[in-house]
Automatic annotation (TrEMBL):
Keyword Transcription: yes
A GO CC term attached to the entry: transcription factor TFIID complex
Localization, UniProt: Nucleus
Family under the similarity heading: Belongs to the TAF9 family.
Keywords assigned by UniProt, alphabetized: Initiation factor, Nucleus, Protein biosynthesis, Transcription, Transcription regulation
Superkingdom as given in the UniProt entry: Eukaryota
Gene Ontology BP terms: RNA polymerase II preinitiation complex assembly
Protein name: Transcription initiation factor TAFII31
Molecular function GO labels: protein heterodimerization activity; RNA polymerase II general transcription initiation factor activity; transcription coactivator activity; translation initiation factor activity
Position of the signal peptide: none
PANTHER family from the UniProt entry: TAF9 RNA POLYMERASE II, TATA BOX-BINDING PROTEIN (TBP)-ASSOCIATED FACTOR (PTHR48068), TATA-BOX BINDING PROTEIN ASSOCIATED FACTOR 9 (PTHR48068:SF4)
């Protein structure tokens, strides 16, 4: 029954969504929310639109009437350099986690109710003083 619903929804999808679904299946992703395909389509559309807008700006700066391959390559390179970052190496993250986990967490007090910080850090504490009536 679920496979039949997936097939019916795949037939209703636009061609780009079908291609993205096939890419996900080829990567071994079989169980995903249908909104994932929509999010990937939105990301791809926004990314390509931004690249072409940047390429148009580069072409106008070079006094060209048409966008050529160099403009697109420069736009992609600019996007990659400023939009995407590579994650730190796994070894570095493990060292950082080990160092951070050396200090134990504080013990939980045996009090019930809301645990609030000291009064001077709370908005519920008094932040004014009343001057006595001097006559």
């Amino acid at each position: 029954m679920a496979n039949q619903q997936k097939k019916e929804s795949a037939q209703v999808q636009p061609e780009d969504a079908t291609i993205l679904s096939l890419v996900l299946q080829s990567l071994g992703v079989s169980d995903y929310d249908p909104k994932v395909v929509q999010q990937l389509l939105e990301f791809a559309h926004r990314y390509t639109t931004d690249v072409f807008q940047d390429a148009l700006i580069y072409a106008e700066h070079a006094s060209k009437t048409d966008i050529d391959l160099e403009d697109i390559q420069l736009a992609i390179q600019g996007r990659v350099n400023h939009s995407f970052t590579t994650p730190p190496p796994k070894e570095f993250l493990l060292e950082l986690a080990e160092e951070k986990n050396k200090t134990p967490l504080p013990l939980i007090p045996e009090k019930y109710g809301n645990r609030l910080p000291a009064d001077k850090y709370c908005l519920t504490g008094l932040n004014f003083s009343i001057a006595p009536n001097v006559s």
